């Protein structure tokens, strides 16, 4: 999907440092000091316009959340949501998932969400998929022991690839749904892409996997 260039986006992100954490490396090992309450930390990687992470933070005040997104033109919309909601348990970071090992100590993150990650269908681009083994290593380096990844997508090819990638990495497949919206899963919070694709009739795939 094409994203409109917003030349003002970076300035806006920088003018809300209480919501969009700049130089997040400074908090490495000290993430429990960033939020009002010291409680579990869940992160969403590729958070887009922020609908999911804002909904999760509203629904679960006993969990801290960070929405991570590399595209400033998109995360600026998540910032608008956060300004409106002013949630004490949600922060945003405009960084690349590749760099998360410089930002979190091992064990500082309790759970990772990946929602509708870019599929990168060409084999030569497989390394860019957020479920490629090098990313699984990055997540392992920041998650607590037995930490989990929760993954949703409408893309069957990416889902099949990701199940293989998780399995080859040695992750435990705890839950797999091949049709989330017609399953008994409760409390689903939709993302922007999920709303768009499911309203056009696409099936939504979801899994939960755990490091051993
Ligand atoms: N999760 C949102 C949703 O479901 O509506 C957005 C999905 S969009 C297809 C994928 C997002 O992941 C894009 O906004 C993209 O910029 C972001 N992204 C891709 N690779 C990333 C990376 N390495 N680090 C951070 N964000 C990334």
Automatic annotation (TrEMBL):
CDD domains assigned to the protein according to its UniProt record, in alphabetical order: AdoMet_MTases
Binding-site residues for S-adenosyl-L-methionine, renumbered to this chain: 44, 69, 96, 118
PROSITE patterns xrefs: SAM_MT_TRMB (PS51625)
EC number: 2.1.1.33
GO molecular function terms attached to this record: tRNA (guanine(46)-N7)-methyltransferase activity
Keywords linked to the UniProt accession: Methyltransferase, S-adenosyl-L-methionine, Transferase, tRNA processing
Binding site residues for substrate: 122, 154, 191-194
Record pathway: tRNA modification; N(7)-methylguanine-tRNA biosynthesis
Catalytic function, reaction form: guanosine(46) in tRNA + S-adenosyl-L-methionine = N(7)-methylguanosine(46) in tRNA + S-adenosyl-L-homocysteine
Record keyword Metal-binding present: no
Protein name, UniProt field: tRNA (guanine-N(7)-)-methyltransferase
Source organism of this protein record: Cytobacillus spartinae
